[in-house]
Specification:
elongated, five-stranded mixed beta sheet, 16 strands, single chain, 5 helices, alpha/beta, Immunoglobulin-like, six-stranded mixed beta sheet, Collagenase (Catalytic Domain), 19% helix
Length: 385
C-alpha cells in the first residue's frame, strides 16, 4: 500500500513538472489572417520548355486589412503548385525577389521528374491553423525530351542544347553542324559510320554562369553530371553542347561546348574531346608556360624537340613557333607538326579565326586537321567501330 502511494505521488509530481515546462515553452501561434490576404501578381519564367527546365516563380502576396492599406506579413507557407508538384516560395531577398519582406515571394521549380504537357499553376498561401487559400495563376507547357535521329550510323554523337527557347531548334542546328563536320577529314570518310542524334531540350545546363581558368586558358563550365546523364539517354559515344549564344566561344573537357552559330569552332573543340582520353588533341598554340609548369601530358599532336612522334608521317615537320609568333605547341618547349600557312590552309587545332556573325548560316570558314591530328582521329574512329 505504501509503495503504491509513493508511485502515485511521483506520478503527480512528474505531471505537474511537465505542465510547468509546457507553460514556459509554449508560445502562441503567430497572428496571420488569410481573410484579407491576396495573391496580386505572379510571374513564371519561362512559360514553356522541355522536361528538365528549371522555372523561376515569383508571387506577390499581401494583406489588405482596410481600403488603401497594404501589409507585408509572413504566412506559414507560400508555395507554387505546378501539375501537382510543389515548390516553396520565400520572401527573403534571395529567391528572385528584390528584398526581404517586400511582399514578393520567389523560388524555382525543377521539372526534371515531371511529364510533358500543359500544367496548371496555382499559388497557395497557408496560415498557422492549417487553412489554405489557393489561386490559379496560369499554365506552363512542357515538351517531352526525345532522342531524335538526324543521321544513322554506329558512332553516336549526341547534340544537346543549352537555354534554347525552342527545343525543336536543336535538331536543325545539329543537322547544320554535322553537315559541316562531314566536310572535314577524317570525319568525311566516316560519315556512314557516324550517327547524329539531337536531344530536344531547352533546359539550362548551367553553362557560362561559371567561368574557370586552367593554365591561363578560360574555360566554359557546365553541369557536366547532368549533361552526361542526358547524353546517356540517347546512348552517346560523344556529346556536343550547343550554347544558345552569338558569342564566339568554345571549350572542351569532358565534352565539346560551342556557340550554336559557329560550326568552325565545333571542329576545334571536338578535336579536344573526341576520344576516350581527358584531352585528346592539344592546342597547337602557346599557353605561355613550359611543360614542367603544366599538368597536360601525352598529346599526340605536340612533341618535344626533334618530334619523334611523327617522324614517319608524310607532310609534317617540327615547328617551334605558333601562328601568333610565340614559341610552343600548348607549352613553350613543345613543337607542332605543321608550319602555319595562311594561304595553303592551317590545322584547326592552331585556333579558329571565324567571321563574326549573328545567325547560323553560310558561308563558313574552311578548316581541316594537319596529318598528325587527322591520323590520330582516324585511329579513334576505328576504335569506335
Amino acid at each position: 500500500m505504501e509503495q503504491s502511494f509513493k508511485l502515485l505521488v511521483a506520478a503527480i509530481v512528474a505531471a505537474s513538472l511537465l505542465s510547468v515546462i509546457m507553460m514556459v515553452l509554449w508560445k502562441p501561434l503567430p497572428e496571420f489572417d488569410l481573410t484579407n490576404t491576396e495573391v496580386t501578381s505572379t510571374d513564371v519564367y519561362p512559360d514553356k520548355g522541355s522536361v528538365g527546365t528549371v522555372f523561376s516563380i515569383r508571387a506577390e502576396v499581401a494583406s489588405y486589412p482596410e481600403e488603401g492599406v497594404r501589409k507585408c506579413e509572413q504566412p506559414k507557407e507560400v508555395r507554387a503548385v505546378i501539375g501537382g508538384e510543389k515548390a516553396v516560395l520565400i520572401d527573403n531577398g534571395l529567391q528572385g525577389d528584390e528584398k526581404e519582406n517586400d511582399c514578393v515571394f520567389g523560388g524555382t521549380w525543377n521539372s526534371e521528374l515531371s511529364s510533358g504537357g500543359k500544367k496548371q499553376v496555382f499559388i497557395e498561401v497557408g496560415d498557422y491553423s492549417g487553412k489554405i487559400k489557393r489561386k490559379r495563376v496560369g499554365n506552363v507547357s512542357l515538351t517531352e525530351t526525345k532522342c531524335i535521329t538526324v543521321s544513322n550510323g554506329k558512332i553516336n554523337i549526341v547534340f544537346i542544347g543549352s537555354n534554347y527557347s525552342d527545343p525543336g531548334q536543336i535538331v536543325d542546328d545539329a543537322r547544320i553542324h554535322s553537315m559541316y563536320l562531314f566536310n572535314v577529314q577524317p570525319f568525311k570518310d566516316y560519315e556512314d559510320e557516324i550517327k547524329i542524334t539531337a536531344l530536344n531540350t531547352s533546359m539550362d545546363l548551367d553553362c557560362g554562369k561559371k567561368q574557370g581558368v586552367s593554365e591561363g586558358i578560360h574555360l566554359i563550365q557546365c553541369d557536366d553530371t547532368l549533361i552526361s546523364r542526358l547524353g546517356a539517354r540517347c546512348g552517346a559515344d560523344e556529346i556536343v553542347v550547343l550554347l544558345n549564344s552569338t558569342k564566339m566561344i568554345g571549350s572542351a573537357i569532358p565534352h565539346a561546348y560551342v556557340s550554336r552559330i559557329y560550326p568552325e569552332i565545333l571542329v576545334h573543340e571536338l578535336g579536344h574531346s573526341f576520344g576516350k582520353e581527358k584531352i585528346n588533341l592539344g592546342d597547337q598554340y602557346s599557353y605561355g608556360i613550359s611543360s614542367d609548369q603544366g599538368r597536360i601530358e601525352g598529346l599526340p599532336n605536340c612533341d618535344v624537340e626533334g618530334c619523334p612522334k611523327w617522324d614517319q608521317v608524310k607532310g609534317t615537320s617540327c615547328v617551334k613557333v605558333d601562328k601568333f609568333g610565340l614559341p610552343g605547341c600548348t607549352y613553350t618547349d613543345w613543337y607542332s607538326p605543321k608550319k602555319f600557312d595562311a594561304e595553303g590552309g592551317v590545322s584547326v587545332m592552331e585556333g579558329i579565326e571565324a567571321r563574326e556573325k549573328r545567325v547560323l548560316s553560310p558561308p563558313f570558314e574552311k578548316v581541316g586537321f594537319d596529318p598528325v591530328s587527322e591520323q590520330y582521329l582516324k585511329k579513334v574512329l576505328e576504335e569506335y567501330k
